[in-house]
Design brief:
Blueprint: H1 4-21, H2 29-34, E1 39-43, E2 46-49, E3 54-57, H3 60-63, H4 72-82, H5 96-108, E4 115-119, H6 122-139, E5 147-151, H7 160-164, H8 169-172, E6 183-185, H9 198-216, E7 220-226, E8 229-230, E9 236-237, H10 242-253, E10 256-260, E11 284-287, E12 299-303, H11 305-309, H12 331-346, H13 349-368, E13 373-379, E14 382-387, H14 403-413, E15 416-417, E16 420-421, E17 424-427, H15 435-451
Parallel strand pairs: 3-15, 5-6, 5-7, 7-10, 10-11
Antiparallel strand pairs: 1-2, 2-3, 4-12, 8-9, 11-12, 13-14, 14-17, 16-17
Bound molecules: pyridoxal-5'-phosphate.
Length: 452
């Protein structure tokens, strides 16, 4: 047992060592130093800091967590796997949990997909999608098909390839000369479109895709889209039918439809995968975040037999996919993912999440009515609350005021964790959050937004 004095010293040391040696992702460290936070433990939808303060995890530890923290079944699956082996490479060898998981993933994935290529983060799953699509056309002799199409405000991760098929000015501008060039299509965002009309925004964007494909499809390998809802670009929602129309254009012009389900997959949107809302069949689909219930870094790029077959040949034909990461298909991660999928089945989680999403939609009406809320966008249990200085004209707050960031700090004081995207406040609770916990979260957010 440690004495209280020793505990206190440890906390001070943690702050000191952290400030001296750590550098956090997507964080201005100067901001962090003013408002430091060190998490010590978690249980259910709450995490606890080193002082014992509890916080509702209203962003699912950055969109990952599904069942809450310390879910018994996943904890046990990992411990059990440790009794066999923690990790062996997938380079030239398979392992048991990765085979089982691949089969389970294909069972639940859209029927166009039959092959699983593992990696360890959303960004790597996207890099793999880029190289897979690119090399497919090379292997098949269509050597001019080397370009990709991005949607404005798209986000696919932070590696150089993933940034090149994304389009978020704030994150990407400084690297612009480093990135490979992609075509960019306007995203059909109803709230931000001058007309405010979903149909107009949708047709305008589809028309831009059609014109681009008509002129350039012999140079285009694929188009990258987040599935129905854009995440990091500000929680922007495609109008109904848009993704389906995009799929048709891809078929018409033989351009691969590459759907990023990293954020939207695993029940998040009230379907196992968001493409199911429109029965879309991607050529390639990337998955990560919720795949292990938020436990371990496993990701996968799913693809079709058509693409797989273009790589399958005698070695001397040089069609092999020369790509891999050290921890690809890690057994502990795959075991966690299998336990996660069992829980989805046993707890009927997708349907439950859809019901909770309806409840949240009703509750968020009170938030939408607040004077400084311009828009509330939601797909399942992904919600974005966009603040506006002037609700009627949609005039945003001056960016330098960092209104949403200040609001999230205030929420933290009241026992809730989330992060802003510009002036959009993210609300993305673990799927397993109870109705009561959802109430608690929404009530804190509402109180704070009301104070603005
Ligand atoms: C988070 C995210 C990524 C990147 O995933 P990482 O695991 O953070 O690399 C890619 N695409 C989408 C849609 C995401 O939300």
């Amino acid at each position: 047992m440690q004495t209280a004095q020793e505990d206190k010293l440890n906390i001070e040391q943690l702050y000191e060592l952290g400030n001296k040696h750590m550098w956090l992702p997507f964080t201005q460290m100067k901001d962090y130093e003013e408002n430091p936070l060190i998490i010590a433990s978690g249980e259910g939808v709450k995490v606890k800091d080193v002082h014992g303060n509890e916080y509702l995890d209203a962003y699912s530890s950055l969109w990952l967590n599904v069942h809450g923290h310390r879910k018994k079944e996943i904890d046990e699956a990992i411990k059990k796997q440790l009794d066999s082996i923690a990790h062996s490479t997938l380079l030239g060898a398979m392992n048991i949990p990765s085979i089982k998981l691949a089969a389970r993933l294909i069972e639940i994935a859209p029927r166009s997909l039959s092959r699983v290529f593992y990696s360890d983060s959303g960004a790597t799953s996207v890099e793999i999608a880029i190289k897979m699509a690119y090399q497919y056309w090379q292997n098949e002799g269509f050597t001019k098909k080397t370009k990709f199409v991005a949607l404005n405000n798209g986000y696919h991760g932070d590696t150089v390839g993933a940034m090149s098929v994304g389009s978020i000015d704030l994150y990407h501008r400084v690297y612009s000369k480093l990135l490979f060039a992609s075509y960019t299509i306007p995203f059909p965002s109803t709230y931000h479109h001058p007309s405010g009309d979903a149909e107009i925004a949708k047709q305008e964007s589809l028309q831009a895709v059609r014109e681009l494909f008509k002129e350039k499809s012999d140079e285009i390998a694929g188009i990258f889209v987040e599935s129905i809802m854009q995440g990091a670009g500000g929680m922007n929602l495609m109008p109904p039918g848009y993704l389906k129309e995009l799929e048709k254009l891809c078929r018409e012009f033989d351009v691969f439809l590459i759907v990023d389900e990293v954020a939207t997959g695993f029940g998040r949107t009230g379907k196992m995968f968001a493409v199911e809302h429109e029965e879309v069949q991607p050529d390639i689909m990337t998955i990560a975040k919720g795949i292990t219930g938020g436990y371990l870094p496993i990701a996968a790029t799913l693809t079709s037999e058509r693409i797989y077959n273009a790589f399958y040949a005698d070695y001397s034909e040089m069609k092999t996919f020369f790509h891999g990461h050290s921890y690809t298909g890690n057994q502990l991660g795959c075991a966690a993912a299998l336990a996660n999928l069992d829980l989805f089945e046993n707890e009927n989680l997708v349907e439950e999440a859809a019901k909770k999403a309806d409840y949240v939609q009703e509750k968020l009406k009170q938030v939408a009515a607040l004077p400084h809320v311009g828009d509330v966008r939601q797909l399942g249990l992904i919600c974005g609350i966009e603040l506006a200085e002037n609700k009627a004209t949609k005039k945003p707050f001056p960016a330098e005021k960092r209104t949403a960031y200040q609001a999230t700090l205030r929420m933290r004081e009241k026992g809730l964790l989330t992060r802003p995207l510009g002036d959009v406040i993210v609300f993305m609770p673990p799927l397993a959050a109870t109705y009561h916990e959802l109430d608690e979260m929404i009530s804190i957010m509402k109180d704070v937004i009301q104070e603005i």
